[in-house]
Design brief:
With 281 residues, this protein is of the alpha+beta class. The protein contains 13 helices and eight strands.
Length: 281
């Protein structure tokens, strides 16, 4: 969609048009003045000054109207960068799932005074590094800023999630799924059998998959494969470990099995993936 993984803009029409037509990124809209009324998945949303709107790739944005005095900043983060950032969050934040689920149902977040000041700082930093858009180091710095901004957002949501937890207790499947996600965070792709997780959680593999599908639309095996694949990609991109060393770190039974797994889930060999990442930077 965009030429860079992280793009900053003040052109609302351009980015909304691109988001609607190509839709391969997370779009963040921060309103600084005026008002914006926008249709998202058939629901009308009103964005006022100091509101932050998070649009996931699968959302459908319809008609929108704005006041004459509207000013806003937009950040578009391409899906591959989003996957990296969210996976990092999942590994570090024990309440990652609760917070991501909160955002799913509350896409508009109003910033308090401290958060507004932080928003101004992030905004200025993005602007400065967008001026050097062709620099590889600037692209990496923008990615780090995006990671910091997402972590800050998760920190802001701490109180909201705690308030949400004071509501009636979730059902058995929701509790099971939350415990499953915590185990996924701990194992980081080193355990890949649904039965292993089911045994640890004292349920049948079938019931675990039903709970996962109820909460996410994905089976337990699909979620396990996603985490495993993201960890392999991270190791290939961010370390100089050999294929054999990554195979050992990820507890695969053999190098041939690891290579087959990578080919199946990445669509290429480990070396090809590492090379494609290096040449695309």
């Amino acid at each position: 969609m965009l030429n860079q993984d992280i793009t900053f803009s003040e052109n609302l029409d351009e980015l909304l048009t691109r988001f609607s037509s190509e839709n391969d990124c997370v779009l963040i809209i921060y309103c600084t003045a005026g008002k914006l009324q926008i249709e998202i998945d058939g629901q009308q949303c009103l964005i006022s000054p100091h509101d932050l709107l998070l649009c996931r790739p699968e959302l459908i944005i319809g008609n929108y109207m704005r006041s004459p005095d509207l000013t806003c900043q937009l950040i578009a983060i391409r899906q591959n960068a989003v996957d990296d950032i969210f996976y990092l969050c999942m590994r570090k934040d024990n309440k990652w799932w609760e917070k991501s689920n909160y955002i799913l149902h509350h896409p508009i977040i109003h910033l308090n005074e401290r958060q507004q000041e932080l928003g101004k700082l992030f905004n200025r930093l993005f602007q400065l590094y967008m001026e050097d858009s062709n620099s590889e180091l600037s692209e990496n710095i923008r990615r780090i800023f995006a990671q910091a901004a997402i972590f800050e957002l998760l920190n802001w949501l701490e109180g909201s999630v705690e308030t949400q937890e004071e509501t009636p207790k979730p059902g058995r499947q929701a509790v099971l799924f939350r415990d499953f996600i915590k185990l996924l965070q701990e194992t980081k792709g080193r355990q890949r059998e649904v039965r292993w997780f089911a045994n640890r959680l004292a349920v049948t593999p079938k019931y675990l998959s039903v709970a996962c599908h109820t909460n996410t639309g994905k089976t337990a095996q699909m979620l396990i494969n996603e985490v495993t694949t993201q960890e392999i990609k991270r190791l290939l991109r961010q370390t100089d470990m050999s294929t054999k060393e990554i195979c050992g770190k990820m507890d695969f039974p053999s190098l041939s099995f690891f290579c087959k797994y990578v080919k199946q889930h990445l669509g290429m060999t480990a070396n090809q993936y590492r090379l494609s990442y290096c040449t695309s930077k």
